[in-house]
Amino acid sequence: MLKQGIDVQKISAVAKTVARQPRFVETILTPAERAVFAQRKGKHQIEFLAGRFSAKEAYSKALGTGMSQGLTWQDLEILPGSKGEPVFTKYPQSSFLTAHISISHSDDLVHSAVILESKNTMKTVQENQPVSRRRPAWLEISASALTHNIHYVRALTGTQRVCAVVKANAYGHGLAEVVPVALEAGADCFAVATIDEGIWLRDFGVTVPIFILGITPAIYTPDLAHYDLIPAVSEVNWLKAARQYLPKTEQLQLALAIDTGMGRIGFREPTALAEAIRLIDKTEGLELKSIWTHFATADGPNEAYFEKQLKQWHALTDDLPIADNVWRHVSNSGTSLWHQQPHPDMIRLGAAMYGFDPSQASLPARDLQPVLSLRAELVYVKQVTAGSSISYGATYKAKEDEWIGTLPLGYADGYRRALQGMEVLLPDGTRAPIVGRIAMDQCMVRLPGPLPEGTVVTLLGAVGDQRITLEELAEKAGTIPYEIATGMGQRLMRKVVG
């Protein structure tokens, strides 16, 4: 849970208030704050007072109470930390909220931002989610397949660095399961879609660089710096705002996104891009880490549009005044698998790492291995008579006496209602159909005979030389493999296998 509050005050206006109301300082500052105030001289005194005044207002806005609704100035105390940075040393609800603060000055203004975060870290929150570990239905993540895919694409491309893309709970495979395997396989850094995913990785213990591929509101600049996350920057106005929010003692690395034809985020004009680089260069605390783009058709046969984007990339970036140690990376999975690499610095490996065919068979096959399997045990087996109906809507009727098995998972686990009629694999590789509508928590399969309860059924994955693929599930559901994988429910137990 995150709450935010922002406040801006004119320093000169605060000075006038002090002149009119001598007790203003005692009203706003706690005794400990007044001791620091007394040590400051001249304008630094007023800047300190204005900063505390503004930050306390920002806290009240984040809390949603207002300073006149049960919250007093003396309830809040902000003192210099070990590096001189402002730190809340006293505030309401401190037992279950962590307060992050940023105070910055520009000309006659003081800008304050306060973010209140639940002390249940994202790691703890995830661990407390009701994962159904006592239910015999689970996802298997193959460590050997994931490792193979990383090594294969690294060798294929000759890249210097592999950035493992683990957004959306590692494409549904599970962050806690995928991240350690990816690190062991040699991933040099990670990419996520949101700041919260990045914070989760830091709380999980990840120390390598973490890129955020989506836009992060500038208000969260203090968190970006605190957790050492690298945000995507797409416009100069974001940079100007981030400068105001960045604590003076913090450093923030940045990744400039270039829109060469994806049409999603990124700089499109050379003048704005040049201005952004100048602004970064002249701002203490900001550092350009990378510059990148994303191809829209690298995983398909449309070579012309790929070449158009590549030409635009070179036109926008080749002559930029940036250091040699700034990473240039344009290769997603499709670019890595089917194109010559424009830059050796880094590839962003998402779909290919998980064994997906990003081209969906429209381009030559590559040696990728599927990472994900879905299995469940039969929890109930019965024989029904001819004419018996199965599940909601009575959409399936037995044509003869049949054996029906119940599996303990359904569309809430990501096995969609549209998969009615899809086949599953029995332990000997025999295919059996899902019958009746798939319910939220259960689905039924027509068995060739009275199999015992506890029999393992494979809904996705291999049994011997037989396999149910993500592509098959996606085709049946009328979607793409990515959507099936990322839709796998949080409550499904995930475990790493060899």
Automatic annotation (TrEMBL):
<comment type="function">
    <text>Transfers the 4'-phosphopantetheine moiety from coenzyme A to a Ser of acyl-carrier-protein.</text>
</comment>
<keyword id="KW-0444">Lipid biosynthesis</keyword>
<feature type="domain" description="Alanine racemase C-terminal">
    <location>
        <begin position="371"/>
        <end position="497"/>
    </location>
</feature>
<feature type="binding site">
    <location>
        <position position="440"/>
    </location>
    <ligand>
        <name>substrate</name>
    </ligand>
</feature>
<feature type="binding site">
    <location>
        <position position="264"/>
    </location>
    <ligand>
        <name>substrate</name>
    </ligand>
</feature>
<dbReference type="InterPro" id="IPR001608">
    <property type="entry name" value="Ala_racemase_N"/>
</dbReference>
<keyword id="KW-0460">Magnesium</keyword>
<feature type="active site" description="Proton acceptor; specific for L-alanine">
    <location>
        <position position="392"/>
    </location>
</feature>
<dbReference type="InterPro" id="IPR002582">
    <property type="entry name" value="ACPS"/>
</dbReference>
<dbReference type="GO" id="GO:0009252">
    <property type="term" value="P:peptidoglycan biosynthetic process"/>
</dbReference>
<dbReference type="InterPro" id="IPR037143">
    <property type="entry name" value="4-PPantetheinyl_Trfase_dom_sf"/>
</dbReference>
<keyword id="KW-0663">Pyridoxal phosphate</keyword>
<dbReference type="InterPro" id="IPR004568">
    <property type="entry name" value="Ppantetheine-prot_Trfase_dom"/>
</dbReference>
<dbReference type="InterPro" id="IPR008278">
    <property type="entry name" value="4-PPantetheinyl_Trfase_dom"/>
</dbReference>
<dbReference type="Pfam" id="PF01648">
    <property type="entry name" value="ACPS"/>
</dbReference>
<dbReference type="InterPro" id="IPR020622">
    <property type="entry name" value="Ala_racemase_pyridoxalP-BS"/>
</dbReference>
<dbReference type="Pfam" id="PF01168">
    <property type="entry name" value="Ala_racemase_N"/>
</dbReference>
<dbReference type="InterPro" id="IPR029066">
    <property type="entry name" value="PLP-binding_barrel"/>
</dbReference>
<feature type="binding site">
    <location>
        <position position="7"/>
    </location>
    <ligand>
        <name>Mg(2+)</name>
    </ligand>
</feature>
<keyword id="KW-0275">Fatty acid biosynthesis</keyword>
<dbReference type="GO" id="GO:0005829">
    <property type="term" value="C:cytosol"/>
</dbReference>
<dbReference type="InterPro" id="IPR000821">
    <property type="entry name" value="Ala_racemase"/>
</dbReference>
<keyword id="KW-0479">Metal-binding</keyword>
<protein>
    <recommendedName>
        <fullName>Multifunctional fusion protein</fullName>
        <ecNumber>2.7.8.7</ecNumber>
        <ecNumber>5.1.1.1</ecNumber>
    </recommendedName>
</protein>
<keyword id="KW-0276">Fatty acid metabolism</keyword>
<dbReference type="InterPro" id="IPR011079">
    <property type="entry name" value="Ala_racemase_C"/>
</dbReference>
<comment type="similarity">
    <text>Belongs to the P-Pant transferase superfamily. AcpS family.</text>
</comment>
<dbReference type="GO" id="GO:0008784">
    <property type="term" value="F:alanine racemase activity"/>
</dbReference>
<keyword id="KW-0413">Isomerase</keyword>
<comment type="similarity">
    <text>Belongs to the alanine racemase family.</text>
</comment>
<feature type="active site" description="Proton acceptor; specific for D-alanine">
    <location>
        <position position="167"/>
    </location>
</feature>
<dbReference type="GO" id="GO:0006633">
    <property type="term" value="P:fatty acid biosynthetic process"/>
</dbReference>
<dbReference type="GO" id="GO:0030632">
    <property type="term" value="P:D-alanine biosynthetic process"/>
</dbReference>
<keyword id="KW-0443">Lipid metabolism</keyword>
<comment type="pathway">
    <text>Amino-acid biosynthesis; D-alanine biosynthesis; D-alanine from L-alanine: step 1/1.</text>
</comment>
<dbReference type="Pfam" id="PF00842">
    <property type="entry name" value="Ala_racemase_C"/>
</dbReference>
<dbReference type="GO" id="GO:0030170">
    <property type="term" value="F:pyridoxal phosphate binding"/>
</dbReference>
<dbReference type="InterPro" id="IPR009006">
    <property type="entry name" value="Ala_racemase/Decarboxylase_C"/>
</dbReference>
<keyword id="KW-0808">Transferase</keyword>
<keyword id="KW-0963">Cytoplasm</keyword>
<dbReference type="GO" id="GO:0000287">
    <property type="term" value="F:magnesium ion binding"/>
</dbReference>
<comment type="function">
    <text>Catalyzes the interconversion of L-alanine and D-alanine. May also act on other amino acids.</text>
</comment>
